[in-house]
Protein 1
Amino acid sequence: MKKIKLWKITGILLSTLVIMSLSAQSQEETWTLFVEKDGVEVYQNSANCHDPSEGYNRRHVLLRFVNTTDQDVEVSWFIETWYDGNCSTCHEPEDPEHFRSITL
């Protein structure tokens, strides 16, 4: 199996993969290519999540991973979480809590 590391993809990836399957059908098909590396294409889209009863209004970034090769590929990355212009996870780049991996 081929392994690809996409280091330091910033954004809201933790919730992205969870809400992608829940929200992707309701979103317009406006996927744009975010990054392409070694036969894996990562597309992005966004979803506005507004729930006044819960007191939040958020914009989530949705990701779509496409394996263009003829073999299984493991894609992994570390999450950078930013609040008010400050990275709250950058001082712990090797922390396994911020590590994500999927097999395509």
Protein 2
Amino acid sequence: MRLASKIFLPVAGGLLVVTAIAVGLGILFVQSLQNHLLHEQAQRDMATIRLLMHQATQEARDLTSLFLRLPEVENAYRLALSGTIDDEADPKVHEARLQLRRTLEPMLAGYAAATGTKLKLHFHLPNSRSLVRLWRKTNFERGGVPLDISDDISPFRQTVVEANSKRHPQHGLEVGVGGFDLRYVLPVTAADGTHLGSAEVLMDLGELLDAASASLQVDAAIFMDDRLLPIAVKLQDAAKHPRMGRFVQVRAPHDPKAAGAVDATWLAQAMQHPQTRHQEDRFLAAFPLQDFSGALVGVLVLSHDTHLLSALLQRAGLIASAVAAVFLGMILLVISLTVRQVVLLPLGRLTQAALRIRDGHLETEI
């Protein structure tokens, strides 16, 4: 093997090994960076959704408070309380219900005209029966039959029970007949301080997530603990709301890849602590959902499309690899020229001089 090869090849091999290690570490760094960015994005999105939920409950409070001190509301309550409020069909309670519909209809119609949605304003009696749901034509349905009665909501509306018993506002997430709602239940008090009942404006969590998903570009899904199914009767149809272990699918992921990445074991883990996982080009983060009392009631799953981020980081990795290859080539070229100029050429001249001296040319300079 020529001397140049003996010198150059080990150096080149060493540089190639170092470069391969550096590229491998670079790939690991890019993957770690991608995971970090996705985790951070999921945390920010969840923080934004929690903020939106808080703002929705505050908006519900503000809207409800507009009606609490109206004389028409107090008069209707006085009329209802003059009857037998434990009787769901009491005529005085029914007349109070009709009175509230008549007097508040212009305000509710104005809200609907301005926003395009009905204001879900609900008045409750002090015994935690429903006085009137003002977004409905009749107050209740039993077996699919519309009934204008004061149905008992105390078995499943703990916010209403506590607002009437403690006479203090109750707010947050609560599972109702239709699933998850954001509520702010306020006591209704007469001008003389008499406790009359409670009232609330309902904010649908699904509608909030629709708006959040569009602005955050994230796919949001909700899974409810199945122990709440006796309350959420509208979610009992397994064809519309499939079961997944101990969970009920309230809001399905839009992306089939995201749906395929969710399983009962993972959701159970997410009930205790936030979880993340990758599924092809989807990154999923699951967060526990707590109701107004702090009890765990379900899991919110956020799914992010990682295609663009992966492509961007992959492109950056390719560029970095190309730059590394160019620098490696330049280093090898510099090493080759340096070895030639510093070692090989002087050694060649020395060899030639030695040969001349051997041949008798003793005047040769070294």
Protein 3
Amino acid sequence: NFEAFGFSEICPQSYRRFSTHGENCLSLNIWAPDDEKTHPVLIYIHGGSFMSGTGSSPLFNGSKLAKDQNLAVVTFNYRLGALGFLDFSFLGGGTVANPGFHDVIMLLQWVRDNIESYGGDPDLITVMGESAGGTVASILPCVHEAANLLAGVVISSGIPTGLITKEKGRENALKYLDFMGVDSLEALRKIPAEVIGNRSQEFGQYIESGITSYLPVVDGNLIPDFPMRMVRRGEMADLPLFIGATGEEASFLRYDHYKESWGVESIIDAGGAKEEPDFLEQMFKCYEGVYGDNTDLHPYSDIFIRLPLFLYAREAAAHQHVWLYRLDWYSRLQGTVGIKAFHSSDLFFFFGNLVPSANINTTILKNIPFDPGKPADALMTKIIYGSGINEAEDLSRQMRDDLAMFVRTQKLPWVKAQPQNLMAKFYDMPLSTEEVMPPEILAFWKNTEYYKDCLDPLR
């Protein structure tokens, strides 16, 4: 038996909600059934726009998933912000592009080499990532060092187009030197990591890029090309994929704070400048024709996440097995306040942590309490799902069963996606199988510059 008693400090970042920040943050957390058997492994990569988050978030506590589904569940930290996703390699001195992505590769190798000691099967490892973590997961089948370690990949609300060229990476890094008032690698290294973390979001405001301020760089080495280009050419590893999103990804953008932090206006303006003058008018006309009075923020859900994600799924489906899902269920309160099935809400269901409780702690790895973090964590989920907890628990059980089935077998019991027919399992009441995006919506986007950029960022 192995025992642990707490989480490590987390990677330096602006987001101050979680525990102590520091450079001693490259750690992992393991939950596994307390028996003598060998179990399939699920590695989860957290999101946070490459500038925030941690694998020790209460939402990702793996106790329930490991115990109920007989899995070994691994979460971890990787370097974030300027420490993880700015490319200073042009400065020499041992610097490399994508330090945070290198952390992910090292984590996969560590799990392969050591997980058997914790009850995991090193030959049956599946990676799951959400949001920025989903973007990382979409890259892994394109990276030889990673793909050979994996049996399958789960991508939740990832953005496979969320990478930049080497040239853009250097441009951002130079802007960061100006932002910090330094002109050399030596001076940069003298800046305390805590200061770098604290100013992560401030840099995004400085360059007016919001959530796209820190992105993986196509360095031609570790990351050889943009994933969408590689998958279209059939150069991605033949790994089974389980890909999905939520029904109202962008619903939180109705709150001005998130609009500002995401840099929505500047991103839309930059994208719209490539389109025809009446682009926005035609876009809303198309969406109103499909959704009527419920159009709401669907266009932004598609722009930011669903369109590039499901185009990636479509291209992959020409070469390998792909299953799709969409979470559409939401509680009465979610409907009342207008957030519905928001970005990342599927994680509550996949991990089974709908109503965090200190009583969840563990017969799994002994003496690891389930720390709900701040009281707000438990309160938030009780408020969100309390009005429909029975339905939510039923749906969570179904989603955990499906996730575990994929981890164990790399198969799922509904129709696979095809390039011409993107059928998905809709997690709702009742369950259904439908087109993951309305055909009329896909037809509209097919005539836009954005669609073409998604398919080939270097065109």
